[in-house]
Write a structure and sequence with these properties.
The protein has no helices and seven strands. With about 100 residues, it is mostly beta strands.
Length: about 100
């Protein structure tokens, strides 16, 4: 694989605004070129709410990049369904990758 791109997308309606915690972890293995990266973005109704990334630094040998954490994302009240998009992108992952997300109220 040269690139891995994954999207998780869902819609919601809410009578009151609230915050959701999105727990994420991702890792990818890269071979020998610096500047490669792994990135997660959370977008609500086309507005970027959260982003995290890690980049390969050495450019030699095998390097495993990992990102993980919990993103607290504000969800607005909405009569019309709002769309939440969680995107994972790895640039030039050569061997393997993992991706895990969990949504908590």
């Amino acid at each position: 694989l040269d690139n891995f791109y994954s999207i998780v997308k869902y819609s919601y309606q809410a009578s009151i605004a609230e915050s959701k915690n999105i727990q994420y972890s991702a890792s990818a293995v890269f071979q020998g070129i610096s500047g490669r990266k792994i990135q997660i973005q959370i977008v609500v109704d086309n507005e970027l709410k959260f982003s995290d990334e890690s980049s390969a630094s050495t450019g030699s040998g095998t390097e495993t990049l990992s990102i993980s954490g919990t993103a607290s994302v504000d969800m607005k009240a909405s009569v019309v369904p709002s769309v939440v998009t969680i995107e994972l992108n790895t640039q030039d992952a050569s061997d393997s990758y993992t991706f895990d997300i969990n949504l908590f109220p």
